[in-house]
Write a structure and sequence with these properties.
Shape: globular
Radius of gyration: 18 Å
Number of strands: 5
Number of helices: 4
Order of helices and strands: HEEHHEEEH
Largest sheet: 5 strands, antiparallel
Length: 165
């Protein structure tokens, strides 16, 4: 993945991610900002927050995320420049020892009564790779289970982690 030349870049859209980029970053543990490797000997950094409708913060041993990791070089920039990350109170920076690909989410389709076409029936449905349930799904996002999670204070990120890339 390469960045377009300076004159051909559009505006930064912090609040959305291209599905192809999301999948490539999640599969290869690449930074969602610069697409460079985000995994270090200390672990991999993920930024998580509480989604609307969730009850309290997720327990650290139960986090499944669709948000790609962030490398040490891009983390301070993201925390400083992204208005959502600056303003959202539930944002947590997580240092993760291990993460495994666990499932996908996307749009479910059902066959029409005349059996001639597929009709969207549900959006943003999750399907685990352990128990796949939806044969008529068009996947849009890849998920990872996070294991060995440590919460880092945003103002106390270890310098070694920031200099890792």
């Amino acid at each position: 993945m390469t960045r377009p030349p300076e004159g051909e870049r559009g505006r930064v859209m912090f609040d959305c991610m291209d599905p192809l980029r999301q999948r490539e970053c999640m599969t290869g543990l690449l930074c969602q900002v610069c697409a460079q490797p985000a995994e270090t000997s200390a672990g991999t950094v993920f930024v998580e927050w509480q989604r609307p409708g969730e009850q309290g913060p997720k327990p650290l041993d139960r986090i499944t995320t669709d948000t790609p990791p962030v490398c040490g070089a891009c983390l301070p920039v993201s925390l400083r420049r992204c208005s959502f990350l600056r303003e959202e109170e539930s944002v947590r920076v997580l240092l993760v020892r291990k993460s495994v690909i666990s499932g996908v989410s996307g749009t479910l389709y059902r066959v029409s009564d005349d059996m001639r076409r597929w009709i969207p029936s549900e959006h943003d449905a999750y399907s685990s790779f352990n128990k796949p349930r939806y044969p008529g799904m068009l996947a849009q996002r890849l998920y990872r289970k996070l294991r060995g999670v440590t919460v880092l204070e945003t103002n106390e990120i270890p310098p070694a982690l920031l200099a890792a890339n």
